[in-house]
Amino acid sequence: MKDIKLEFLISEIKKSQQGNKLLIVTDRNVEKFYIRHIENLFKNSKIETQSIIFEPEEELKSWQNVMKILSILENKNFSKADGIVAFGGGTIGDISGFVASIYMRGIKLYHIPTTLLAMVDSSIGGKTGINTLKGKNQIGSFYSAYFRVLETEFLKTLDEREFRSGMAEVIKYAFLQSTIIKEVEQYFNGNKFLGKNDFNFFKESLDFLKNINLVDILESFNFNEDEICFDDIKFNAPSEEISLNSEAFLFNEINNSTFTIINKCIEVCSIMKRLVVKLDNKDDGIRKILNFGHTIGHSLEKSFDYKITHGEAVAMGMKVETLIGMRMKISSKETFIKLSQILQNFKLGNESFLNLENEEFKNKIINNINSDKKINGQDIDLIIPVKNNKVIIKCIEIKEVKEILMEILN
């Protein structure tokens, strides 16, 4: 693992840590490839590391596992000056962040995302959570990492299914791009009191996003035809310096023509997510659009007892929520076709795995919507795509959503 350039991580953690202890939270997949490497990097430092390793599954986000992590922190006398490293994908980030937010009312959190999904979405913005019998992420907090590190070398050990799962979130951002640009422009042009750093961040990010179209990139790439050879990937040194306490990231570009699209997707999605979080940190407004595909997606995940990946569920969720928009005469057939074709490019959105002959299963999908966190009384905020790769937040009666969903599933 000599190519993984995490030495800078050690030095930056040493600078930011007042304490001398770190708990590395990871899973079996990451452990077998990387855990010895990162532990060895700390050996010569004055930081003492402990590791806790979970099975790589959504079910790890439980109270039982929260208590396991808390027990280690207490038994090893971790103080408020110590920290937690979330070393893995989205599930590891969610539970690590939650524990970091509640132990001693908050200790430092460092994200090292190892999956595409975590790199483009879940490691940004501070959402943490665990699941309950009622649903996904029912208990959680907003707690941002002190910093996060993107090392795309980790993508070499992703299997195809996990890679495709991450691409579902990338596709989601493609259909949000125009709306994000519009909202950020309005904020930027209407706010005359931005500090220098924020001014430069908004200006440079807008200039960048206006000159790239994520939908066009994804439409031109066919995962079914283009061979992706992970063994051929070569990497450059990190190209950005860490900006502490701002969720900035180090991006280690993949120097391979086949993976140029992945580099660009990570960069574009990360910028979009950071912009949205700057405008709406707590999910009260524009940040809600990041839930496109997630109302139906989370319902599907729970209906399948989390045996499908988050990305697979979100892909189907985006299609179904677009169909709901069509039934309400908000979305167009053209939008649905474009979305479906891009999803198909990455072997996503195939409804053949849905057991729609089973009435009990269909009722599960419909009733699981009751657990959605976007419910407000009898209504729910649904993210509906409209023309020109834009979306709107539509407040709809839950009853109406269920009725339309039943029609679609039938």
Mean pLDDT figure: 86
Largest β-sheet summary: 5 strands, parallel
**CATH fold group of one domain:** Rossmann fold
Structural class by SSE content:
alpha/beta
Q: Count of DSSP E strands?
A: 10
Overall CATH class of one domain: Alpha Beta
Proportion of strand residues? 5-15%
Low-confidence region ranges = 225-255
Trace the largest sheet across and list its strands: 2-1-3-4-5
Percentage of residues in helical conformation: 40-55%
Q: Please state the CA-atom Rg, rounded to the nearest Å.
A: 21 Å
Oligomer: single chain
The rounded distance between the terminal residues' Cα atoms is 50 Å
Please tally the helical runs, counting DSSP H or I stretches of 4 or more residues: 15
Shape: globular
The H-and-E topology, N to C, reads as HEHEHEHEHEEHHHHEHHHHHEEEH
Give me the CATH architecture of one domain, please: 3-Layer(aba) Sandwich
Give the topology, please.
Layout: H1 7-16, E1 21-27, H2 28-43, E2 48-54, H3 63-75, E3 83-88, H4 90-102, E4 108-113, H5 116-122, E5 147-148, E6 150-151, H6 160-174, H7 177-190, H8 196-210, H9 214-219, E7 251-252, H10 260-279, H11 294-303, H12 310-327, H13 333-345, H14 359-367, E8 375-376, E9 379-386, E10 390-397, H15 398-409
Parallel strand pairs: 1-2, 1-3, 3-4, 4-5, 6-7
Antiparallel strand pairs: 8-9, 9-10
Helix pairs in contact: 3-4, 5-6, 5-10, 6-12, 7-8, 7-10, 8-10, 11-12, 11-14, 12-13, 12-15, 14-15
